[in-house]
Amino acid sequence: MKKGASLYLDGITVTFDGFRALNNLSLIVEPGELRAVIGPNGAGKTTMMDVITGKTKPDSGTARFGDHDLTRLDETRIANLGIGRKFQKPTMFDALTVFENLELALKAPRGTLAALHWRLSGEARERIDEVLTEIGLTERAKDRAGILSHGQRQWLEIGMLLMQDPELLLVDEPVAGMTDQETEHTAALLRRIAGKRSVVVVEHDLEFVRALGRKVTVLHEGSVLSEGPIEQVQEDPRVIDVYLGR
Amino acid sequence: MPGISSLRFNLRLLLVALIFVLLLLPPLLNALPAGHPLRVSDFVVAVTGKWICYAILALSIDLAWGYAGILSLGHGAFFALGGYAMGMHLMRNIGDRGVYGHPILPDFMVFLGYKELPWYWLGFEYFPFAMLMALLVPGALAGLVGWLAFRSRITGVYLSIITQAMTYALMLAFFRNDMGFGGNNGFTDFKDLLGVPLNTPSARTGLYLAAFGALLITLLISAHVVQSKFGRLLIAIRDAESRVRFLGYDVTAFKLFVFVLSAMMAGLAGALYVPLVGIINPGEFSPGNSIEAVVWVAFGGRGTLIGAILGAFSVNALKTWLTSFAPDLWLLVLGALFIVVTLFLPRGLIGLIKRRGA
Amino acid sequence: MKRLILTLLLVLGLAPICFAQNEFNATALRLGGSFGEQAEAVEKLGLSGDPRALPLLQALADGKLARMPDGALRIGDADALTGAPADATGASPVRINNRVRAALRSALGRLQIVSPDPAERLRAADGILRSRSAQDLPLLDAALARETVPRIRERLVLAQGAARLASDDEAMKRAGIESLGASGSEAARTVLLEARTGNAGLAEAIDAAVARIDRQLAFRRAGELLFQGLSLGSVLLLAALGLAVTFGVMGVINMAHGEFVMLGAYTTFLVQEALRGTFLAPWALPLAVPAAFLVTAVLGAALERGLIRHLYGRPLETLLMTFGVGMMLQQAVRLIFGAQNREVSSPAWMQGTLMLPGEISVTQNRLWIIVFGIAVLLLVMAAIRFTRFGLEMRAVVQNRRIAATMGIRTGRVDALTFAFGSGIAGMAGVALSQIDNVSPNLGTGYIVDSFMVVVFGGVGSLAGTLIGALTLGVFNKLLEPYTGVVLAKVAVLVGIMLFIQRRPKGLFALKGRAADQ
Ligand SMILES: Nc1ncnc2c1ncn2[C@@H]1O[C@H](COP(=O)(O)OP(=O)(O)OP(=O)(O)O)[C@@H](O)[C@H]1O
Ligand SMILES: [Mg+2]
After folding, report:
1. Which of A15, A16, A55 to mutate to test the interface with C (most CBs of C within 10 A)?
2. Contact assessment for residue A102 and residue A130, using Cβ atoms and an 8 Å cutoff
3. What global pTM score does this model have?
4. Contact call for residues C258 and C470 (beta carbons, < 8 A)
5. Domains, chain A, ranges and CATH?
6. N or C: which end of chain A has fewer CB within 10 A?
7. Is pLDDT at C255 greater than 80 in this prediction?
8. ipTM
9. What are the pLDDT digits (tens) for A140-160?
10. Is the CB of A222 inside a 6 Å radius of any atom of ligand 1?
11. Which CATH number fits the domain B2-357, given the four candidates 1.10.10, 1.10.3470, 3.40.50, 1.10.1760?
């Protein structure tokens, strides 16, 4: 895996039964960049992540990560390229404990035999404890993930993303269900991660986006409407029209 | 769904120990002199031995269904294929003692006018080869069907239906005379295994102990699998398959691994079963058999391993008892069991015991 | 009456081609002459194909022909030639010898070809075909010119072809090969191959004609296979339609579906028994359709409300539970009705076979099942598209919560939908009672196939179910001649597995979020 691959989307179109969820979408995320993506409901933000992670195959367009053509790879291969994802609706393994969820996410050989012979090393345990502290779930490590609250589930999934240690993090609405304090914490966390890693955050919460303080991309009806620093985007009359002005 | 870690370990170990100790009793008590008040009949040994094979089958289903969420309605086919492999060996062992006295060809082949042994019968005169085939053939079939199904992400009831279609198709095929597997009569009238005549007490005890050992070993293997990270991944796949993919695991490979392993266990169970009951025929492929075995697992409590074993014994005990005086009622009761288990006992007997214990 | 008209037609149509009136009379009168004259006249009349000769020759053979002193002939009190009443006093019976008798036998055999009785004509045509003599050609030409029954015409053409081949004239032979080749029958093929040995010079033409027949035969066989395939397809369609509703629309997997089909067949049996001896007896089958629908629909509603509804969102448990229900239903029926097959008879209008053009024979009841299958399909489509219930059903399927907030009683809709699907299964049972054994395990044979149809066609699509059923039916029947019944089934199963590799969601895949769940 090469360090510092960039994400490159060009002319991506996705249709569902004739409905264009993404329409000629183009986006470039440089290595180490932290990018916020906003847009009204149904703008295609989640669909864009689906395309990047191989869940949805685009009808046309190119999607590359470094030298890899993402449209030809399946979810597993893409994840192994170093693209990690947190879902809009937090999804994890409810029957397993918080600790076990993190353990599965931990970066380690992914093969079947490796899984059979896996022993939790001291190093791995330390790493998990570290993340548990970061996401504030140390106390809940032995609880089943299924009984966590929505906010805690958000944190756990962020934790799983951290365990994966990906090069590119796709984070879909991470702060829904979080307190203001937690929201700030998340923003700080993402800012810290960026630089070493690329991060794409989808969020409706403008306070949060402002707190990130980086470049913003506005999606509307499946294509990029505007791009730039938050202050500039907020001035853009088209953006005000379709999104902020409502 | 209880993860394995949430079931109290002590309780499980205790149950396992209890079951295995109890299972040692029939052959021991059978060895007592005739007329002794504690002596159990040959029948009890034979029937319990049969149940042990069923327990192995149940264990294999639990591994696939209880952990990985693969509800196979075709495990009876893997069981039967294992049985046929062993049956072929037993047929070859008959040698010239058949009705027609042909030195090589089994009776049914002489009857059907075969001139020589079909190529796929070659090698089955050797016991190790037959045992190997009893594992490999079900494993290969599971590998093929699983590969086709898993890679195109056929899951849930679709997979169940496809596996059911598989065993149904095999049943139709094995009913045909020209398959070279004895048509609807299958194989029977076996004489001996490894030089021991099958109708002797020592053979019976030997087969019983072999099944007992196989159950122990398959339980240990299964336990190792489910308690490793592999097992936790299976549970993860069961509950949120696509999420596992986004973590970078090759879900197809994991499912295939467990499905093949499970099919091989079922094949082993079938191979042990055939010399115990002395017959194998295409009826073993009937879809009803597979789904009945699934209910043993559901009744005992899936996703717990020990529950599968418990379920196999208890349902079959009920069956043996009930069919002895009201055979007509059995299917009604079994049908009702399906309903009761799914509606009221989603965690099976183990769930009940656990609730009591808690 | 019919016969009379036919005779009339024959006589009329014949007028121009009969040999001239005078010639006929002259020849006929010679029947009263010397044995030599008689034999000659018999032969000539026999080859004439003139229907008037038939009663004459018959009378001669029966010793009923009499001769007046003036040479006129009488049969009883009528003139033998005109049939008009005439004085017969002084008539003496015409006597015949063995030679005449032999000539008569062959002439009568030939002349049957103009008999008013189609069965006799057919027999005569067969006789002429066997003799393969060019002498018969005028007779055959004459008979062909007026024959209207297709089956007999075919035989005549065959005989004509054979007779032409037997002639010495090369052009005539070629004409025979041509007409045989065009007839496209198995028998013509045999005749041609037989003639091949004696006609080395014509081998090429004969081979070409045989090849032509083979093409026609292959075409016909394909037609028959296609029909059988469509017939099987319509059976699959019937069995799968109910499933397309319960599984396809509701997502509920009902393993007792096959037992509902079986119950429909038993309802048919009960209706038949109840109506036995009444004036309604011939209508038992049509009346069984609504009865079976009602019985299974009520059972279906009870099953949904009582059990299935508690397992929504847990498909695997639903599968197991409904399997148990099916098992109990099957055993209950076995205990009540016994394990042996029950007899459900077909009404007269469904029996027999029908000949389609090109000798493609189809059995009536199969044809009716195809019609019935299409009717049920249309009914289901109409119910879903045009009724209030269909609208509510679609609403609930698309978004249960929103449907509920709009005042739709979703529970009721679930029960009705399931009842509807089960009722269709019952109707399928009525049809199956006509072609399968009515026994407790009637349904088991269809359940796997039905699921295959639904999965193959695409879950949730009725059009897919139709196409899926027909495709599977036809494929099965096309494979059977090569692989046998069992392997054809296996091959189709494997084919579906491979097909799903390419299109995991079936032929008519639903797209969108609903399909993801
Ligand atoms: N699998 C699918 N099938 C059909 N339509 C889909 C599918 N996935 C997305 N869509 C449609 O595509 C459009 C974009 O959806 P998407 O989830 O990407 O929007 P979003 O920007 O993430 O919205 P939100 O802010 O609400 O999360 C929506 O109109 C949605 O209904
Ligand atoms: Mg979204």
Report:
1. A16
2. no
3. 0.82
4. no
5. 7-82+166-244 (3.40.50.300), 88-152 (no CATH)
6. C
7. yes
8. 0.90
9. 889 999 998 888 898 899 999
10. no
11. 1.10.3470
